[in-house]
């Protein structure tokens, strides 16, 4: 007999049960009959025979003997059970391990840099400490291309993966990426759950180093502003290697952290010629050597400029002499070789490619200089331009072919920061100010309205904002996610863009957009654990609401900022904002808002271990929600009152409130609310000594939690279900429940695993 999973083992047990019935000439033993013969609960028997629970070794031995298994079968089944348990333990230790492979695509036309590649090869050959290579040089000189190209060459040496982040240290349209944000992205990629990520930067860096310990990982920190931005991202294990690129020489990183400097100069003449040959072919380059020399000289041997020139040559098919002549004319017009200014040095090359664009593509390129970055999609670009998506896609394709954009992921376009600066310069000098303002409004409308729709899917029946949600401007076509999954996917993909857009709108004085966008991002940032971003956006939203002079917006912003402070344990700050929100709601006569604020206060006090204060606010919430006719708030308040009463020992009263909540939640079809309420009911029944009823309540919670995909909720309830079964005098089933809870908590790397592990140790 063989079994690979608990379902397989259960199938073998059921087969033994059927064989036993045939041999005895009687019907199959029922669950209750098996329970009577073994002394176990019929629920435990059912779970063993359906595969929901893996039987403990002693119980499996007793059960298979009862079902008539031969000694050989008993041994085979016991061995299979042990293998299944060991497999589960291994899965819990390494939950769904995904190796990060974050490197961007390699550069197809990479040329030159033989000395630099050799130096990097030597550095990685026999590391005795963390190896950090600091690649520095002017904009467009090919720092990223070198780092990514070499990283791909040696990727197979780092079998635990490669991490990559663009730190945007010299982004012309926005602030550099914070070290905390970069750390959070790396921790996500390394599989660290959001619940485990601390709020303090030093603690985050320590967790990051722990997650990297003994792993062979290559880390690329691209476009760093300075050493201070990089230092928290450095690992502590010699099995890793770090490549840093920056326009700054990172002197302190070299002197204090032992980084190996790797300055990058312009390409040699031969390497520049090699780059053009790779792109254009040997025949075409050798046919016009003088033109090639002229193009190399006009591009100042800068790889970015040479790549753009080659793209223009590929697309036009013109003789290289013609293109060299055009480039020379453009250089005279724009004042090429403006020493010390990388944009000025290659402006002629940029203008040359820009002048070759069709009018729609040229117009879109200019407007992209208004986008806050770091990337843009077709729908957002269409709204920015106020044009249809099909035409916008054609323009984006044209810009990509001209090397003025890069489609670095399917449907997502980005540009080198030199090109973004050039686009902004063109827009400032070409497009009238009212047109630029209108384009910015369209862009912010696109992100704000789409984020609002997505937030509604994540959190139905949230605070209304219709008084500030004017229709989008003409030419804006917001995206329309229709499911929870689509909403979450859009917000996850656009997360850095949305934060950049919010900062842009706040800096530019678009207060209505700032408030609405900050409010729409709150649920996503909270659930994904982006707590520092949440505090930042809520603070920006509150300042914007105050500038608007809108008390209703201010009240909501105070409540949301209080929630952000609560999560990061700033309880005094949270209380102050909730008191201010309550005052604003009372003055406005907004009963529903007042009810929501009291519920927030109840949650704040419950989090601090003050159930009596939490009960006072929950009861006040219930009264106000009933007066406002808000049924969802009533249901939540009824359960909250019941939970607080149960915490205070009044379990009969708790049952009354929770059963009322359950009736209302069933009418509303709120499965998440039902799951929470069944859990409260189970807790109350347990403490009344009604253990069988508590088991039924907890099992109903488990069904709903599994339907919702709420693994933490499932484990939390399993831990209490184990307590109840232990109180029933069924320690074996209790251990099985606690073990399942521990398996889930361990897979989630959640700190609640410690308490469950302690129960198992004492049982």
How would you characterize this protein structure?
- Strands 2-3-4-1-5 form a five-stranded parallel beta sheet, sandwiched between helices.
- Among the domains are: 6-93, 434 Repressor (Amino-terminal Domain); 114-263, Rossmann fold (3-Layer(aba) Sandwich); 269-355; 359-431, Winged helix-like DNA-binding domain superfamily/Winged helix DNA-binding domain (Arc Repressor Mutant, subunit A), CATH 1.10.10.
- By secondary structure, it is mainly alpha-helical.
Helix and strand layout, with pairings?
Elements lengths: L5 H19 L6 H8 L3 H9 L6 H10 L4 H23 L20 H12 L5 E6 L6 H12 L7 E5 L12 H11 L11 H12 L5 E7 L2 H4 L10 E6 L4 H7 L2 E4 L5 H12 L1 H6 L1 H10 L4 H14 L3 H15 L7 H14 L3 H10 L7 E2 H8 L3 H13 L4 E4 L2 E3 L2 H14 L2 H26 L25 H25 L2 H17 L3 H18 L2 H17 L3 H18 L2 H17 L3 H18 L2 H17 L3 H18 L2 H17 L3 H18 L2 H17 L3 H18 L4 H10 L1
Parallel strand pairs: 1-4, 1-5, 2-3, 3-4
Antiparallel strand pairs: 6-8, 7-8
Helix pairs in contact: 2-3, 4-5, 5-35, 8-9, 12-15, 14-16, 15-17, 16-17, 17-21, 18-20, 18-21, 19-20, 19-22, 22-23, 22-24, 23-24, 23-25, 24-25, 24-26, 25-26, 26-27, 26-28, 27-28, 28-29, 28-30, 29-30, 30-31, 30-32, 31-32, 32-33, 32-34, 33-34, 34-35, 35-36
């Amino acid at each position: 007999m063989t079994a690979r999973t608990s379902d397989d083992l259960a199938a073998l047990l059921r087969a033994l049960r059927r064989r036993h019935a045939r041999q005895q000439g009687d019907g199959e033993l029922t669950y209750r009959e098996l329970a009577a013969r073994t002394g176990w609960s019929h629920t435990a028997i059912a779970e063993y025979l359906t595969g929901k629970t893996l039987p403990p070794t002693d119980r499996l031995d007793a059960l298979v003997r009862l079902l008539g298994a031969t000694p050989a079968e008993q041994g085979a089944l016991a061995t299979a059970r042990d293998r299944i348990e060991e497999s589960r333990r291994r899965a819990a230790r390494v939950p769904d391990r995904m190796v990060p492979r974050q490197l961007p695509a390699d550069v197809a036309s990479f040329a030159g840099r033989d000395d630099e590649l050799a130096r990097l090869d030597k550095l990685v050959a026999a590391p005795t400490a963390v190896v950090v290579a600091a690649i520095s040089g002017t904009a467009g000189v090919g720092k990223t291309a070198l780092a990514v190209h070499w990283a791909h060459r040696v990727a197979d040496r780092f079998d635990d993966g490669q991490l990559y982040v663009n730190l945007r240290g010299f982004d012309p349209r926005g602030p550099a990426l914070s070290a905390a944000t970069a750390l959070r992205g790396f921790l996500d990629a390394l599989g660290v759950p959001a619940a485990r990520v601390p709020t303090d930067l030093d603690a985050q860096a320590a967790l990051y180093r722990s997650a990297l310990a003994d792993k062979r990982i290559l880390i690329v920190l691209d476009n760093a502003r300075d050493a201070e931005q990089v230092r928290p991202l450095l690992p502590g294990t010699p099995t890793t290697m770090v490549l840093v690129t920056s326009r700054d020489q990172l002197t302190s990183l070299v002197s204090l952290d032992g980084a190996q400097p790797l300055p990058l100069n312009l390409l040699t003449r031969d390497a520049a010629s090699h780059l053009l040959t790779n792109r254009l072919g040997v025949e075409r380059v050798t046919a016009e050597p003088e033109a090639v020399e002229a193009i190399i000289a006009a591009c100042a041997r800068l790889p970015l400029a040479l790549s753009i020139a080659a793209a223009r040559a590929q697309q036009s098919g013109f003789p290289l002499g013609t293109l060299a002549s055009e480039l020379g004319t453009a250089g005279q017009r724009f004042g090429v070789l403006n020493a010390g200014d990388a944009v000025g040095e290659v402006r002629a090359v940029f203008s040359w490619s820009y002048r070759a664009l069709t009018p729609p593509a040229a117009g879109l390129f200019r407007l992209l200089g208004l986008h806050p970055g770091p990337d843009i999609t077709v729908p957002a670009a269409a709204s920015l331009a106020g044009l249809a998506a099909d035409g916008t896609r054609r323009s984006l394709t044209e810009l990509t072919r001209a090397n003025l954009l890069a489609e670095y992921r399917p449907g997502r376009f980005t540009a080198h920061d030199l090109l973004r600066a050039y686009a902004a310069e063109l827009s400032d000098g070409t497009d009238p100010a009212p047109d630029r303002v209108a384009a910015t409004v369209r862009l912010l409308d696109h992100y704000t309205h789409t984020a609002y729709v997505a937030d509604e899917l994540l959190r139905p029946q949230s605070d209304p904002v219709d008084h500030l949600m004017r229709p989008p401007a003409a030419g804006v076509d917001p995206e329309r996610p229709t499911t929870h999954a689509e909403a979450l996917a859009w917000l996850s993909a656009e997360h850095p863009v949305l934060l950049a857009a919010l900062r842009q709108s706040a800096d530019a004085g678009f207060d209505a957009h700032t408030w609405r966008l900050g409010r729409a991002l709150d649920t996503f940032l909270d659930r994904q654990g982006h707590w520092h971003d949440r505090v930042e956006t809520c603070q920006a939203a509150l300042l914007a609401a105050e500038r608007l002079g809108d008390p209703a917006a201010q009240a909501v912003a105070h409540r949301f900022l209080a929630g952000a402070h609560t999560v990061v344990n700033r309880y005094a700050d949270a209380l102050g904002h909730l008191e201010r929100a309550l005052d604003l709601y009372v003055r406005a006569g907004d009963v529903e808002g007042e009810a929501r604020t009291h519920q927030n206060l109840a949650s704040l006090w419950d989090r601090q271990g003050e159930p009596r204060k939490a009960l006072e606010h929950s009861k006040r919430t219930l009264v106000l929600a009933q007066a406002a006719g808000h049924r969802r708030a009533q249901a939540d308040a009824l359960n909250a009152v019941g939970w607080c009463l149960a915490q205070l020992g009044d379990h009969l009263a708790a049952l009354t409130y929770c059963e009322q909540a359950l009736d209302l939640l069933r009418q509303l079809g709120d499965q998440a609310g039902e799951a929470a309420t069944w859990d409260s009911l189970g807790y109350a029944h347990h403490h009344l000594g009604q253990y069988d009823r508590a088991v039924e309540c907890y099992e109903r919670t488990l069904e709903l939690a599994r339907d919702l995909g709420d693994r933490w909720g499932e484990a939390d309830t399993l831990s209490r279900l184990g307590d109840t079964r232990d109180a029933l005098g069924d320690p074996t089933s209790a251990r099985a429940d606690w073990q399942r809870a521990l398996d889930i908590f361990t897979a989630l790397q959640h700190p609640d695993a410690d308490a469950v592990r302690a129960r198992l140790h004492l049982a």
